[in-house]
User: Fold these one by one.
Assistant:
Number 1:
Amino acid sequence: MGVEICVEGLTKSFGHQVIWQDVSLTLPAGEVSVMLGPSGTGKSVFLKTLVGLLKPERGSVKIAGRDITRLREHDLHEVRKLFGVLFQDGALFGSMNLYDNIAFPLREHTRKSESEIRRIVLEKMDMVGLIGAEEKLPGEISGGMRKRAGLARALVLDPEIILFDEPDSGLDPVRVAYLNQLIVDLNAQIDATFLIVTHDIASARQVPDNIGLLFRRELVMFGPREELLTSEEPVVRQFLNGRMQGPIGMAEEKDAAQVEQELAALGDGGGKGTRSPGSQTLTPRLLPGPGIHRPPRWEAIARREAALHQETVVDA
């Protein structure tokens, strides 16, 4: 079972440059959450802060009741055992075959026998569809297979939290679709808490239980996917529709008058309670594949129903 991550008032800077400030959110245990945002908004920095690789200037990150921002290195090392991380490129060792890459954390951090390691590695390779590729080197396989190998390696220590740093980068749309289904299936099977940083809007619409958006050094919104996908917030609508009109510019800053003019031209300037032709549509969430059962998560269902009820009230 995954664990809840509670972030309160988190602020991170590099020198005089504020990356984001006063970020507060709760990643619900066992659910899939996605963090969106334009390039350069510090999404990967946020992941590194959650796992304790970067220290924030202010705020707290509570995992299993412990604030990792205040832990000593030894205690932080223990908390990090809860995490599995899938990096953008899979971060595989080029000189090792896939089997040895995936076995590496077990050999490094446990005292398990080679027979036990083999059982675990083959189990995880089977989960991500890599059985038969044990002897292949990372340079001999496709980008999609490298991602799956990196995911298998992230799974071998049975983490309760898995962080995905742009898992879809460098993949074609078909491989992204397969990866999305794999993520949904894995979450149903292992019930860990997932946080995915991505730019892929189709993935953000289909995969998560919850969505957040970072923009202009702050967390604009975080909540059930239904709330974000039907939001009237201009920056949320612009990003999810992938259009130029709105607060996000090439350099991330736009003049307020220009934004207002662009939104008015689109019919998005009508204010709260106004539903325009450009309103967000609610994409169905991906379901686990055949034979994979995901037990009902009543807290998530209650949050979704509350978000949809609130949207119905606004429409009325």
Number 2:
Amino acid sequence: MKLHFFKYQGTGNDFILADNRKNDITLTTAQIHQLCDRKFGIGADGLMLLQDRTGFDFEMKYYNADGHPGSMCGNGGRCMAKFAYQLGIHRESYHFLAADGVHEAEIDTEGIVSLKMKDVKSISKFHGDSIVDTGSPHYIKMVTNLTELDVFKKGYEIRHSKEFDDEGINVNFVEQLEEPDNIFVRTFERGVEDETLSCGTGVTAAALVCYHNENGFNEVEVKTLGGILTVEFDRLDDNHYEDIWLCGPAEKVYEGTVDIK
């Protein structure tokens, strides 16, 4: 079988995308894992299929790099909106279905993609750190000197600790920068089982934890290894956040055809 694919990246978080509106693409867990392998495949943090879904502009089916179905991917959702536009699905505002429910996305004249995330109604504490579900579960740990931190080692330890080993959790290390509304985030992602250059749901979770206005509108600029993202949201109280938008670039890298065995 031959697969015509597109490679996209959102602040260095990279994905293999394919148009499955004809419902003719069937991939096994092993095949997806091989395609995402950076030495023996195309290489990516995940694979996504754009599919038809009644009542929506499209459905986003996301698979982790290990080949298993994944939860919501924020940068993936932003890349999927850009991909839909390339395929000729032109909307002022996209309305699509993902693993955690319905999302909206908009593309501005400079190509910046803004993705509306699900509301957050709970931020829990765990040994002085925070746990937030922004479509995917995230562990938020505040640190200093993040540039020098061994994110793989520390992230692996938390992700595979007895509390999280079975279901898995994404681990985000966050440093508050000099500006009160600027933070630096590095993420160890489950499913990839490594550090990624950026993680959209993780950036969103970190921004909610690091709000700077007590209530009302907040805008947090987030530095990642792959670039800058912005998270905008309304904070109602300690455990209630609405109208959450993840904003940043999403770009096509290349396209090609690969033989699937």
